[in-house]
Amino acid sequence: MIAPHTIKVALILPTVPVYSVPLFSYLSQADDVEITCFYSRGGKRGAKSVGNNLPVPNVMVPALYQPFSGVPLYQCVLKSVITGKFDAVICCQSLGNLAQLILWMLSPILKYKFLWWGMGFDEYRLESPESEPKGLLNTIAVRIKDFMWRRSDALLVYSEQGKRYSLKRNINPHKIFVLNNTLDVEQMRRQAQTIQQVDIQETRKKIGLSENSFAFLFLGRLYKQKEVPFLIKA
Predict the structure, then answer these.
(1) d(CA 201, CA 209)
(2) Cα–Cα distances in Å, from 107 out to 58, 95, 153?
(3) What is the pLDDT of residue 36?
(4) Which of 18, 20, 79, 172 is 20 to 30 A away from residue 55, measured at CA?
(5) Angstrom distances, CA of residue 146 to CA of 114, 173, 207
(6) CA 97 to CA 101: how far, in whole Å?
(7) d(Cα 189, Cα 175) in Å, to the nearest integer?
(8) Cα–Cα nearest to 11, from 32, 31, 33, 39
(9) Cα 44–120–168 angle (5° rounding)?
């Protein structure tokens, strides 16, 4: 039973990766917010969803995907959101998902708050938040995104870098909130305490490293901005 003061939020995601589960566990403890997560299964080349293992209400919706990809072109979520009487809708910042664009356009009519969640800048069309888009099509896409961000109720960004870009694009600073996007560091620390030196040496041997060689581990996606080639060269 939802309390009268509870804020109902619809969160639309392309997929729900396993590393998002701790976030949903945290959100499920809020007394004044109920989040319903709408997600899709993911494509053959995309990350698979953990799906109904979430500790919050969740619904898997059919989706039309880009060819050979896990990126939805359209998610069948409109009816559920429109009839669900949500107070707020949160979507990933993407121009490629038609359902999200429609929900953004409907927000003034249906009187729900609309929030974008993501990098805060177009990581596919900008080399960095400080750079300018190259080419006419990229420039148009970035300008459209900036326009939509400015005319939304809030922008949830992964980092201070995303916030600086948003401010540079004349987005109201009171609408920008930094939600650091990171791994579950506490869990990693707990696991690290269980690792013995013999485990490290066995792993070194298994992957072909000599006993005293220097090694580093990179954990993340290969975005250009992370400068992994520079790390390897260094």
Answers:
(1) 9
(2) 21, 16, 10
(3) 94
(4) 79
(5) 15, 14, 46
(6) 7
(7) 34
(8) 39
(9) 150
Query: Does 1 have pLDDT greater than 50?
Result: no
Residue 48 to residue 44: CA distance in whole angstroms: 8
Burial state string for 80-95 with b = 16 or more CB within 10 A and e = fewer than 16: bbbeeebebbbbbbbe
pLDDT at 54 over 50: yes
pTM for the model: 0.78
Return the structure tokens found at 231: 């790390």
Amino acid at residue number 24: F
Amino acid residing at 50 = V
Report the relative pairing of strands 63-65 and 72-75 from DSSP bridges.
antiparallel
Full DSSP string of the chain: ---TTPEEEEEE-S---GGGHHHHHHHTT-SSEEEEEEE----TTSPPP-GGG-SS-EEE--EEEPTTSS-EEEES-HHHHHHTT-SEEEEES-SS-HHHHHHHHHHHHHT-EEEEEE-SS-TTT-SSTTS---SHHHHHHHHHHHHHHHTSSEEEESSHHHHHHHHHTT--GGGEEE------HHHHHHHHTT--HHHHHHHHHHTT--TT-------S---GGG-HHHHHH-
Contact in structure between 128 and 223 (CB atoms under 8 Å): no
Query: Whose structure tokens read 């997929």?
Result: 15
